[in-house]
Task: inverse folding
């Protein structure tokens, strides 16, 4: 827990330079545009603690799986997010002294992430060992308009001397990852070129042969006048740079504008990378920094128009929620259905891979409500395109006949997690992928998606479950043995209630959708049935039989579902009864002790009640919530949001707000002491959900929008916008009223606290006294 | 499964050179003396497939644990058995052509492991590319008399030419392990010295700073006359050698005798290694090869006198059992209580570490019956000396108050396995360590051991169990959750019957021994109680309460114990119903599928019935055996022996013999296609048990020896010797009679098939018609 970020509604602000906080700030002040991203490393050299990170979407390294003893079915590799070329680098030497904040005296240091306009600004005054003082200002962003580029304006002004400043903008592919064996490097040079105006390096990854061209152009100005001085071209393996020595007088401002392009073979043929790189550089340098920044601001304005949440009366909450929305928008734009939302986005390399079930369970609702329908649809298509790999993944484990098991984490559809208890057993992820189709269709009404793509995925998932269950003669029921539920503080349990019910639900939904598609587009149905060799009568009958005979562990006495068989054999202690110094368990207890305890990492039974809320009455939800929440340590960043939403539903407003606070500023306050590794991107969507589904009580029922809002006592008001089908609505919840604005040109009926409310086009409805 | 080893009663013989079998033969023909060991690599250079292996007892490398995600309590390292200096190397060049069997034509190749006399012999004729033919004979052994030394006599005779043969005996520490990252090396040179007569290299391991001095001396003879020729001294980093060019005529025999000493800092101060190495070399070269060989034969004769099993009428079985006994005696001599029995002994590097519960559960009975009592006692002392580490290991997992959890595998008492499901959960190993004390005392009558050392271990183990259980309110019983039983084809199960019963047994035995020690040596008891802060009344009362209230999963209907809770929820299939191409499961099925199946790797419930046989009636054992054995795939080399013994007990003679056969020639016939990695040393003791406890029906009851022998139809007779307390007995079982010879000077009463039989000193009792 830290508290060094200044509270501000639109900006993330750090004042004063504390090297001990640098890695945290590098994560927090990261910039990205969905295609590339960059931690807030310094442009100039820095010899202090730093995690260098420059990431290119889709580019990874398949590292050897780390296992004690290899066993059949283990994944072949785990995907490492690669640190790519350093394109921000600008070495500065002042009369022969390197500008390095680790060795200079630093004054008036200020770092600002301007979320409204989408740029990073850093200002400081540095005093070198010999006493020379310079004022520096560095502003940069990854353009969301020209999404293969980034630009920097870096200015240096001598304060108390006149002298020579040597400036070396460069591109360097000779970079390392934090997570690597024996300092191995992951990039080999393919080609490089340097002129007096800049240059480029094309490098390839040592495995999988991704190629990336990273190039730069630069302009040097003195007091705003472009200057031309002799240039020393520097080139070495994987590196190009231009050294320029500039005589500068005290008070004169030396400015370097650096234009960078990052062109990946994921988007262009390998042999075109150099020329595209050069073209892009010429184009953006032609636009110039100021124009690009203006375009950036305009583009971010549009994003905020759709996705902002406004909280009045609580600057800290306002900053927290905007930071989350900002990072989500920096991470995923929905323009490329091959991409997805990595757990750290572009803010760090930890967790590797890119896509967990987080996307379907936590991120999809955010993009459904705040972006064009195609963005969410692309998230579904991502899985659709991986279906064949998911079938192969299941085959490796012995499943047959087109059964699909989606990977726990993936870059390209292949499993690339590292632990058997997860890859083999945390199979409920398959449920989230089916559920996302349901969620998407429920929200958008886009049934055509089921016909075109969804049903094929649903059949493959239903097939998986129908093979993964087995019939227990002892119980005379279908059981699912050896699974890991969402609560990863258990492993290899039998009959995890959540897994059993989501499995059963998947088969039900698949049966429904089989019938829907056959009814609405028989030609397509027949074609699909042939393609996947669907034995309709036989398969549906088996699915139905399993649905009807599935075993659900329950505690009849308490009226609760049992997280898994035997859960009540554990010693029952509540989190509140633990001495505080035992928390967080994952730092204080051995893994063994955690596994044997009754403590829960994140919603498990409650995750099922959240997904399938319509099927359970409030009392059932309440009994389970009241049993499980006090046993939950919320040590996954994905945990509090589901509980916050459920607490809101149950009228536990204080608890709902308390749980919301646990993630709202998770990274900004470095709540878990791990922000230095990167930000918790996927949980940010959960925070958004806490506000919209929790406080706002938003639900879709029978194709219609419902709200059941409340407002935390601590706030004056909050508002959020929702895209829903043809409509854009803005909901403002104040202490004494709710206002709902229909920003669309057609009327719509929504339900407020269960009562229908007609919203007229371009009008606001005000409901007082709520 | 292979069948290339010639059947012979006393020798392991390979005829003809097949490079594809070389790595297997390198394992099979390994030599060792408990202190050092050497795979059957060639002395001369060999560019074909080979696993180089020269091992020094106790010297290892703590490699980084390989885990996907580190969690608290995971072991810090896994111990790698290190390939140490090549001391056998003798490069041979024939008129400039390197002698290398990978590039020569090879004729009359023969490799013999003479088990009776304890040496390895290799003979062949090689024809070089240019057509030069040489006859070679190489004989070597690791001396069990001078156990820091090995010697070689290597002879070369030109057949069809006269010319110059260059001979380079050397010592080389620049060696690699098969299991290493990026070819890293584990030895750094400390010092080296070379003279015309040989030299030495001292090297240190890159971690833990083990030092080893390996030196050599050599003598060159031509037709048995020592010759002196100019010597070229060769030295480079980690290497010394002597090159001698010898003119040899056709038919003349050139002989190199090479004396090697391997002196480890495990046994001597580091600064003395060089001088001890030189002294040893001078001493053994003084003795000479022939004398050393004579001493070797005499020493092996003594070993065989104690441990031989003689099988008449079945050469293959005879060879198999002698090979097992030979390897066990090569691996562990019992002279150093810091050493133990690695799963591969000195025959390979696989599995790392040194000590599993194999030692207590499978190896102890062999050494108890075939060696001095001190040998078995040293195996117990090994664990006694590791008690503090076992307490620390338990503390890492959150246990307190002197509870001890012995490691799953260790070199020095620290856990160095790699998988949480084993290190955290396969805790039944603690039971085997307590059981070994019981087994030792039962066999030897050495109650003093309990007083001096055993009780301290037993209290610490009982404390562990008393903390590891928890009281289930739901069951109103004590339960043990989250364990892995001996059947490693399950993981993280609840209430594994074997674990529960061995835990309970440990507490019972600890209570008994507390009472025994207090009664027999109260002073010592008080001293120990103070040392370990034993709260006698309170702790014993808790233990007794757990013993009385332990939960044991059972199937009342079938009258069987349940391997674990929920075992009957699994799909029940028998091994016999599986298509043969599905076996072995561990090569054909994914780990996931194995875990979810009902199939059993090795005795689990039956292991409990084997250990605690006296507590169960034969019908109970039969019902469980008949339920579990058909579900057991015996994919651990430790599995068949327990089943074979139990089948014998139940009168299932054919089955007993069939199971015996599965391990008797496991390595010789490369049954599991893995002998190339090394031999299955610990399972060899299990094979010995199959004969003595299975066929021979040997048991100790109330301090007295019982036999209940039968003989497989395929055999004429078999005999084995047993040391039992003051007595040495020889038991001969033929088809029509049993003879028991009392080789001691005092009479003894034993029980044959339940009837007492008095054995007079130095007399043989004959019981016909058995």
Result:
């Amino acid at each position: 827990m830290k508290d060094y970020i200044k509270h501000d509604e639109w900006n993330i602000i750090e004042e004063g330079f504390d090297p001990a906080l640098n890695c945290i700030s590098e994560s927090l002040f990261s910039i990205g545009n969905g295609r590339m991203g960059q931690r807030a490393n310094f442009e100039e050299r820095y010899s202090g603690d730093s995690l260098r990170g420059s990431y290119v979407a889709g580019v990874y390294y398949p590292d050897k799986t780390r296992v004690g003893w290899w066993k059949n079915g283990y994944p072949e590799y785990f995907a490492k997010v690669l640190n790519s070329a350093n394109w921000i680098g600008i070495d500065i030497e002042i009369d022969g002294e390197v500008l390095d904040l680790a060795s200079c005296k630093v004054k008036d240091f200020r770092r600002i992430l301007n979320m409204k306009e989408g740029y990073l600004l850093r200002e400081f005054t540095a005093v070198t060992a010999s006493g020379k003082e310079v004022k520096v200002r560095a502003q940069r962003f990854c353009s969301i308009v020209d999404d293969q580029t980034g630009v920097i304006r870096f200015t240096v002004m001598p304060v108390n001397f006149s002298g020579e400043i040597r400036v070396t903008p460069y591109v360097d592919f000779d970079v390392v990852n934090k997570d690597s064996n024996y300092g191995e490097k992951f990039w080999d040079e393919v080609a490089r070129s340097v002129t007096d105006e800049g240059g480029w390096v094309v490098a390839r990854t040592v495995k999988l042969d991704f190629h990336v061209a990273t190039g730069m152009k630069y302009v040097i100005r003195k007091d705003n006048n472009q200057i031309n001085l002799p240039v020393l071209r520097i080139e070495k393996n994987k590196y190009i740079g231009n050294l320029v020595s500039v005589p500068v007088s005290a008070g004169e401002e030396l400015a370097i504008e650096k234009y960078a392009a990052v062109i990946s073979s994921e988007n262009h043929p390998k042999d075109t990378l150099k020329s595209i790189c050069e073209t892009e550089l010429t184009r953006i340098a032609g636009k110039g920094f100021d124009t690009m920044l203006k375009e950036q601001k305009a583009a971010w304005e549009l994003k905020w128009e759709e996705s902002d949440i406004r909280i009045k009366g609580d600057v800290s909450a306002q900053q927290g929620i905007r930071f989350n929305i900002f990072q989500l928008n920096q991470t995923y734009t929905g323009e490329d259905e091959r991409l997805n939302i990595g757990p750290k986005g572009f803010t760090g390399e930890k967790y590797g891979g890119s896509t967990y079930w987080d996307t379907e369970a936590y991120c999809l609702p955010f993009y459904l409500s705040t972006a064009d329908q195609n963005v969410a649809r692309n998230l579904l298509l991502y899985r659709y395109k991986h279906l064949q790999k998911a079938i192969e993944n299941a085959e490796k484990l012995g499943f047959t006949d087109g059964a699909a098991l989606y990977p726990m984490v993936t870059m390209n559809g292949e499993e690339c997690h590292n632990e058997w208890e997860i890859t083999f057993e945390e199979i409920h992820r398959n449920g989230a992928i089916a559920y996302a189709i349901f969620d998407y269709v429920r929200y958008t009404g886009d049934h055509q998606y089921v016909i075109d793509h969804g049903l094929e995925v649903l059949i493959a998932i239903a097939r998986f479950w129908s093979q993964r269950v087995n019939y227990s003669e002892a119980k005379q029921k279908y059981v699912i043995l050896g699974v890991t539920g969402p609560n990863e503080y258990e492993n290899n349990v039998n009959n995890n209630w959540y897994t059993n019910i989501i499995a059963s639900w998947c088969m039900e939904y698949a049966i429904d959708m089989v019938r829907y598609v056959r009814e609405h587009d028989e030609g397509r149905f027949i074609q699909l049935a042939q393609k996947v060799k669907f034995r309709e009568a036989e398969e549906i009958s088996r699915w139905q039989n399993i649905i009807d005979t599935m075993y659900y562990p329950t505690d009849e006495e308490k009226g609760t579902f049992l997280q898994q068989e035997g859960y009540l054999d554990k010693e029952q202690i509540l989190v509140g009864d633990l001495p505080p110094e035992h928390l967080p368990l994952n730092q204080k207890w051995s893994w063994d002790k955690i596994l044997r305890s009754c403590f829960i990492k994140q919603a498990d039974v409650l995750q099922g009640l959240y997904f399938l809320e319509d099927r359970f009455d409030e009392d059932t939800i309440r009994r389970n919530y009241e049993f499980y929440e006090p046993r939950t340590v919320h040590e996954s960043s994905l945990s509090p949001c589901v509980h916050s939403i459920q607490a809101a539903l149950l009228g536990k407003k204080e608890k709902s707000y308390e749980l919301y606070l646990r993630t709202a500023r998770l990274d900004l306050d470095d709540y878990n002491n791990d922000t230095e590794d990167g930000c918790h991107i996927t949980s940010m969507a959960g925070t958004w959900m806490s506000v919209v589904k929790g406080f706002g009580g938003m639900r879709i029922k029978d194709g219609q929008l419902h709200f059941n809002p409340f407002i935390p006592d601590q706030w004056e008001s909050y508002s959020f916008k929702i895209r829903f089908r043809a409509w854009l609505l803005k909901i403002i919840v104040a202490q004494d009223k709710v206002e709902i604005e229909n920003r669309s040109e057609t009327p719509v009926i929504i339900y407020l606290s269960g009562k229908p409310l007609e919203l007229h086009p371009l009008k606001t409805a005000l409901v007082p006294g709520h």
